[in-house]
What we know:
By secondary structure, this protein is mostly beta strands. It is built from three helices and 16 strands.
Amino acid sequence: MGALWAQFASKNTVSKGPRAVGLLVLPPKGQPRLIPVAILVDGRFYDAGAYKADPVPMALEQGTVYEAERTGSSLGLFTVNQALQQKNNWMAEGTYHANGEKVASTNHKAETKPREEKDEGPPVLRRPGSAPPTPVSPAPEAKPESPPPSADDSTAKTTPAPQPETAPEDPNIPKLRRGAPTRDVEAEAKSGATPAVKNNVASNSNVGAKSPDKGPATEAPVVETVPAVSDADGPEPRPYGYDMKPGEEETLRTKMLAMASAELREHAKEFRKPAKLAPAPRRKAGAKTATKAPQPSFEDIQLRVFDVSNSNEPVAVLSATAHPAQNSETTKGDFYITLVARSDIYGELRKLLSVVTDSQHLDVNPRMQLVDVVDADGDGRGELLFRQISDAGTAYAIYRVTPDRLWPLYEGSPQ
């Protein structure tokens, strides 16, 4: 293993750690898993999947509890049960309990009706399903439960004694089981179905796989991915959402798309070779030329707005797929753009980050996908957590929002 370089956080951090940040993957069915991202120790960020991996990384030790968050708001708790390594990548499986969820107790419950303290005689062995014997009482009105059949009864037949394996099962007899079952074990036993044995390593690669097509209405299951933080002494989670009116959101969206168009035209020349076109005809003297630049088109637009410092200053993050207009400077192809801007009290936008790339230049500029905002260093302010996709693989990066730019707190290596 190569050297493990530390990356420093800002000087005004509150939590000195250890404070671990990961991604909690919650599939619709199956066991949740945790992907380690970064761990803060003594004010320095390390790769959580490699820090003190002897033999298991510190962030994935058994019993470690993570708090899942969405935009800073707590969703529930995840407890690590076991760490797994898959192609040199670490992850953990465990149990997840959402806030407000009732956790099944495995403790024995006291009887609702106490037993009467009286001498019932020596213990008697009974077959399952048979009624307990009627206690002997000197009262004259005591009668047997069922009279024996008479010898002259035409319907009476001599039958052998019932065997234990053929006797009907009493549903009230308790059974010992491990843990809290998640399925009807009795129904599976009666139907003859054999429960599948889960492979902890192989199941991770199948999470989110599309189920067999059962008709036109079949849809792929949605896998939810949220940040998760583990810190015994860190601050309480706080929301970082920014509420806007419909008119304000539409105005901000228009401004962000206009800024994205300008960024796309500026960077397109760096990634596209000029197309081979026929020479343009000479213009006549005095002819007017059009000054309006062609506008690109966008799809898969995602706009999220946060208040990372709880100062009522919105920070907007726009990501989209762009189709640049065809002209003499560009050829056909799609671009991926991620744009981060801060809005001041006058509604003016200040660009903090702009990343433009395409499928042919991921080795130079990785594609940036916003995961969410999370308090990575425990100072109460939110940082932006991005997923970086390049030719070398996938990495994660954490950026601090400053007035003029995004400052990198942690940038992982592609895997």
